[in-house]
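Suppose you are handed only two things: the residues of a chain and a line of SMILES describing nicotinamide-adenine-dinucleotide. What would the bound structure be? This form records exactly that question and the answer produced for it, so the two can be stored side by side and reused later without any lookup.

QUESTION INPUTS
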Amino acid sequence: MSGEFEGRAALVTGAASGIGLAIARRLARAGAAVVVADYDEDGAQLAAGELETAGARAEPVVVDVTDPDSVQAAVRFTTDTFGSLDLAVNNAGVGGPSLPTGEYDVAAWNRVIATNLTGVFHGLRFELPVMAKAGAGAIVNMSSILGTNGFAGSPAYVAAKHGVVGLTKSAALEYAEQGVRINAVGPGFIDTPLLRETDNPMRERLISLHPQGRLGEAKEVAELTAFLLSDRASFIQGSYHLVDGGYAAQ
Ligand SMILES: NC(=O)c1ccc[n+]([C@@H]2O[C@H](COP(=O)([O-])OP(=O)(O)OC[C@H]3O[C@@H](n4cnc5c(N)ncnc54)[C@H](O)[C@@H]3O)[C@@H](O)[C@H]2O)c1
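ANSWER OUTPUT
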């Protein structure tokens, strides 16, 4: 399997931490040149340094996915630095507060939607023209199990992740003939810094929601993402794939 992405350039947003970092590592291990894009500048530098030390080609770039100019610049940086954009993972996301819809903070709503939904749109908006022109490319958008299930107390997050699934389907229909595959991944609750903010009783509750009796690991999401980006997934287009320890089977 190693070398499967040799000669391909990947842009991964939110790659300084958690799931994005695990994806960057997985793609780099299979030979991709990786742009580690994140608004955490130190984290992006550290992650890119780690990939380079392991023998990969990697560059950090500071990006704020809520800002279209910043995302456009990150896409341009990828093609300028590595000569192409073959793989993209629109992964950057935030959690937001836990409050019922009737009490939800309006500013928090706007921040979660701007990052988790509009941020994915910004990625597609600037990645797709490059890939369509090349006549090839593969994109994974990071949704969640909450892209199909509701979750009390997380209205903005749930709405954004449902939106990512719909956006993925529409873009996939538009670009299929041009050789670009776009799919979405729906992880269950994964043990990353995003989740470590939650207190212990909440963590125990989240674990109990998974029939496997544990949280997922970032590398398990990276494995599915790498598959969907690979030529092994050549007939997979516009669909939403769970990696959730059985959460949605209940
Ligand atoms: N952890 C989970 O349980 C879980 C489950 C399902 C889906 N997800 C999704 O996976 C993705 C990654 O989450 P994670 O758990 O690895 O979280 P994380 O907090 O470990 O990593 C998120 C990364 O995104 C970056 N980021 C946040 N806002 C940004 C912005 N505006 N511009 C650029 N970078 C930004 C952060 O700096 C961070 O490095 C998110 O979209 C999240 O919603 C996570």
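WHAT STANDS OUT: The longest strand covers residues 180-187. The two ends are 33 Å apart (CA to CA).
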